[in-house]
Q: What sequence folds into this?
């Protein structure tokens, strides 16, 4: 690697020009995208748990696709656009993204360490498939580890968010298909706690 | 009841919800302390060895390295019960033990420095299993543990700390029984609680003797107390807790890591961050205790237990910190589930050359019950007793007594959980699905369905001391001074709800301090399911005290007796004339505050309870066990936060809970003593794609706990499930399964579809006599002869070969 080479990385709509090198503020050629986001750009919302591509905690969007930022080298991301959990809020109003609001409303977290990664996986899913079936949500999140077992509340929150996004969008702006039959009956029963006697 | 409350029982937004979903929550590894260095630990490849020499010169010379420490350089700080484990030692006692410490300007430099350290080892014979450790003439791991048996009892629980359960006359009890079952069963797969966030600490040493420690555990103040003793009572310890990315008890065992970071900070004069990698977390941090029991149970036809006798072997790994405490609590909890006048249950704690066992939710009770209930099941089976009826009859009832962890006898004064159990059984459809012992509920080709049930409860909900202060500010706001920090259960938010309810304030007018021991009073923390009653009790008492003082000061101003006054939304008013309200600032003044104090003292007379019903489907072709349905049933007294409780109950699957019966295990290579699955691909965990149908049934019968009559669930959520799974798989297959977890390999071996490979694992149980077995004993029984145990490791090594 030649000295003084630079890379451009757009993160949450801001473009950073980063120097590749071995100094503290540089991007080392061996640095992962997760490391650069957290330790160079200070975006610690992206979490690292396994650091080996196995748990999904470090998930971010890279040019719109959900990727594991601990498995990518930052130098490979030259010219790319990254969205992290910090970039989900509306930049104009500061309002929470419907997914975030839905996670708040459903308490779709316990310790919360997995939440940023799950939110980003869910965002990638809903961007591509605004009307996912429950099975499709489960599949999209299958790489996201949650040790506290918040899965049930998360599934409810993601489906609820999908509905909110559809309602908020002008007609025809998002997928027009109706939820399929698989959507109707969750195999899981969140919200069953409560007085039954 | 709950419907009359303003906040309690309502699904309210958790206080930290917005921070979590926007990524603003700062966990330990998100913190930067000025001038901070990064620490790393060189770890041993040997399970047992002497360090002959260490050459650190090349590592010290690497630019960016600020300190390299070996056993010759570290202070004599120690952990363990007794205090056997040093910051670094000249002997390594498990594959993964600490050999040297490095602090450097970046993590990458610290990592490179580790590679430059040259170590010469003299390998020593290792004992990797309890059988090896207990064999005559076995190599000893510590001189303090002769014969590799750890001294029983912990000073924390007093001089009569429960070590055994002994009462009545077991021989007479057995002679009165209609059936006597004997067997050996173990829960020896030592699953990893595996919180998402790895263990870690930031330590800052200031001369001459002050240590400021940013910790990641659920009980920062407890860390302060434990560390004070670990530092030899010579160090002024300040702990600062923060959001914890899961603990499940385990991170309270970060003590050695904390001492190591502190030693590095002392050596460099700079703060040092030491955070484990996931591989270290899985191969060098604490696991569950291993548990194996040889037991004998006498039972009458009506489900009355006449006697329980047994030898309980507990594998603590290379050292014990809280294992004696877990034995004490386990012995207590066994008596809550199996009510018998005659007991002779004895425990032995064994040291082995593997990762230490530390704290994992369930804390001795889950392990003991997972081991002994399969033996109790044999007695039920012989007498054709439905296990649900058995648990319902035997679970502790008002007026029953038990020896608790301090060796004292207590009489239970809580609620009868029968109604919750019945509600759970109805929701599950237990009566329709239960077909008798070793009978599947359904058979569809090669897929056989079976059901099982388990129950658990804990008296430690009232353990130890909690203290809190509540400060009222003039503008109608309150601050809780408490060392409660968030670890997933919503505990700080629940304290806010309780205080807001007492003071009748909106939730956003109540905040809680950071869990900083320089700010808050003592708090033992959310352990032992004590959050709702003990911690809640202290905060409620502090809020009530503050309210009382406020009304006393308002009384002369309003010209009324304090008992005539009430407060709401930052106003004080006579209850009979709310229109004459004055603001808090008219009472407190613009300058000043009102401070209330609250305290909870230990009380071992209440218990929580959770029953778990499971349905599994076992494919006899593939050996795959599919968890289809789970119903959890409990009575929370009063629900404080419905979604939080729901989350907690769903958590029954993970963190070494139900899934520790299905697929979670730490797999050791018996030749090297190394963990073979110390990564998140080889260690199996439940994904979003594999969720059973889950239903939680929660009753609210007011408990005589505190003013909200709540008792909570907490820690016990994981405990009843694993033995229920084992029961369900046994019923599905029509033969007793005695090993955890029920992997396809074990199922196929039990079915005889694949030949037995060597001896069975440690979880092998072989009924000896009087048991209601149908002859479908495990392969292990055939191999070992009746009544003997597998050694628990050949089998794991064999698994790893696959
Ligand atoms: S931290 Fe990147 S996948 Fe686990
Ligand atoms: S909420 Fe703790 S890991 Fe998911």
A:
């Amino acid at each position: 690697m030649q000295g003084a080479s630079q890379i451009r990385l757009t993160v949450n709509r801001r473009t950073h020009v980063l120097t590749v090198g071995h100094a503290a503020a540089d991007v080392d050629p061996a640095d992962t995208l997760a490391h650069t986001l957290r330790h160079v750009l200070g975006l610690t919302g992206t979490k690292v748990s396994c650091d080996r591509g196995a748990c999904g905690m470090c998930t971010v969007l890279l040019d719109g696709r959900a990727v594991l930022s601990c498995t990518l080298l930052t130098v490979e991301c030259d010219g790319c656009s990254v969205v992290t959990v910090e970039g989900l809020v509306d930049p104009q109003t500061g309002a929470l993204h419907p997914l975030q609001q839905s996670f708040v409303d459903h308490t779709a977290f316990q310790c919360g360490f997995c939440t940023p990664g799950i939110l980003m996986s869910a965002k990638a899913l809903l961007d591509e498939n605004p009307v996912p079936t429950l099975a499709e949500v489960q599949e999209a999140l299958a790489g996201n580890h949650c040790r506290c077992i918040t899965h049930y509340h998360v599934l409810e929150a993601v489906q609820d968010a999908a509905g909110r996004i559809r309602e908020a969008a002008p007609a025809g702006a998002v997928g027009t298909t109706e939820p399929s039959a698989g959507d109707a009956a969750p195999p899981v029963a969140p919200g069953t706690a409560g007085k039954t006697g | 009841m709950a419907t009359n409350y303003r906040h309690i029982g309502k699904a309210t937004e958790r206080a930290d919800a917005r921070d979590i979903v926007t990524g603003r929550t700062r966990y330990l590894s998100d913190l930067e302390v000025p001038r901070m260095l990064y620490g790393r630990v060189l770890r041993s490849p040997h399970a047992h060895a002497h360090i002959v020499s260490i050459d650190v010169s090349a590592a010290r010379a690497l630019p960016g390295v600020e300190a390299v420490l070996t056993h010759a350089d570290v202070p004599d700080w120690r952990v363990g019960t007794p205090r056997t484990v040093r910051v670094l030692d000249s002997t390594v006692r498990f594959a993964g033990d600490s050999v040297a410490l490095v602090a450097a300007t970046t993590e990458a430099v610290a990592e490179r420095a580790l590679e430059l350290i040259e170590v010469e080892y003299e390998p020593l014979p290792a004992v990797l299993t309890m059988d090896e450790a207990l064999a005559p003439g076995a190599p000893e791991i510590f001189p303090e543990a002769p014969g590799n048996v750890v001294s029983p009892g912990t000073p924390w629980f007093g001089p009569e700390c429960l070590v055994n359960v002994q009462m009545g006359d077991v021989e007479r009890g057995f002679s009165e029984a209609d059936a006597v079952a004997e067997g050996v069963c173990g829960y020896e797969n030592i699953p990893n609680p595996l919180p998402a966030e790895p263990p870690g600490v930031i330590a800052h040493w200031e001369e001459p003797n002050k240590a400021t420690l940013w910790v990641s555990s659920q009980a920062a103040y407890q860390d302060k107390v434990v560390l004070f003793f670990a530092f030899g009572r010579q160090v002024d310890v300040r702990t600062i807790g923060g959001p914890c990315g899961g603990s499940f008890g385990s991170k309270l065992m970060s003590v050695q890591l904390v001492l190591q970071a502190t030693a590095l900070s002392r050596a460099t004069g700079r703060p040092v961050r030491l955070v484990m990698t996931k591989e270290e977390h899985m191969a060098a941090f604490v696991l569950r205790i291993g548990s194996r029991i040889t037991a004998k149970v006498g039972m009458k036809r009506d489900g009355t237990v006449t006697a329980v006798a047994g030898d309980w072997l507990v594998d603590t790994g290379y050292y014990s910190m809280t294992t004696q405490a877990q034995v004490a609590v386990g012995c207590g909890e066994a008596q809550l589930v199996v009510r018998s006048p005659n007991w002779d249950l004895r425990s032995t704690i064994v040291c082995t050359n593997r990762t230490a066992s530390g704290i994992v939710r369930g804390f001795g009770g889950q392990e003991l019950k997972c081991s002994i209930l399969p033996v109790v099941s044999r007695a039920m089976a012989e007498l054709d007793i439905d296990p649900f009826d058995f648990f319902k009859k035997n679970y502790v009832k008002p007026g029953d007594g038990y020896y608790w962890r301090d060796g004292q006898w207590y009489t239970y004064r809580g609620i009868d959980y029968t109604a919750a159990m019945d509600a759970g059984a109805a929701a599950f459809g237990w009566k329709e699905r239960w077909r008798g012992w070793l009978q599947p509920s359904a058979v569809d080709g090669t897929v056989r369905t079976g059901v099982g049930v388990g129950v658990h409860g804990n008296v430690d909900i009232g353990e130890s001391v909690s203290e809190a202060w509540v400060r009222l500010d003039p503008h109608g706001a309150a601050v809780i001074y408490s060392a409660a920090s968030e670890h997933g259960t919503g505990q700080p938010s629940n304290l806010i709800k309780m205080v807001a309810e007492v003071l009748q304030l909106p939730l956003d007018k109540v905040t809680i301090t950071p869990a900083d021991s320089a700010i808050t009073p003592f708090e033992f923390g959310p352990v032992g399911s004590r959050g709702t009653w003990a911690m809640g009790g202290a905060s409620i008492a502090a809020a009530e005290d503050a309210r009382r003082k406020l009304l006393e000061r308002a009384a002369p101003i309003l010209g009324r007796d304090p008992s005539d006054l009430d407060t709401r939304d930052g106003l004080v008013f006579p209850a009979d004339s709310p229109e004459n309200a004055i603001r808090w600032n008219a009472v407190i003044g613009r300058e000043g505050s009102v401070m209330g104090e609250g305290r909870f003292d230990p009380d071992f007379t209440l218990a929580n309870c959770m029953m778990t019903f499971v349905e599994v489907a076992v494919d006899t072709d593939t050996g795959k066990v599919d968890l289809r349905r789970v119903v959890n049933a409990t009575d929370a007294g009063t629900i404080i936060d419905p979604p939080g409780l729901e989350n907690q109950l769903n958590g029954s699957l993970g963190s070494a809970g139900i899934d520790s019966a299905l697929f979670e295990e730490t797999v050791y290579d018996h030749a090297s003593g190394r963990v073979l699955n110390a990564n998140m691909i080889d260690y199996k965990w439940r994904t979003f794609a594999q969720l059973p149908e889950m239903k939680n049934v929660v009753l609210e019968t007011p408990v005589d706990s505190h003013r909200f009559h709540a008792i909570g669930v907490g820690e016990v959520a994981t405990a009843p499930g694993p033995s229920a799974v084992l029961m369900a798989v046994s019923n599905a297959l029509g033969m007793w399964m005695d090993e955890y977890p029920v992997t396809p390999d074990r199922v196929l071996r039990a079915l005889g579809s694949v030949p037995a490979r060597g001896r069975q694992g440690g979880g092998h149980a072989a009924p000896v006599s009087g048991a209601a077995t149908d002859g479908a004993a495990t392969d292990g029984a055939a191999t070992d002869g009746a009544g003997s145990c597998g050694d628990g490791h050949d089998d794991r090594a064999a698994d790893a070969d696959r």
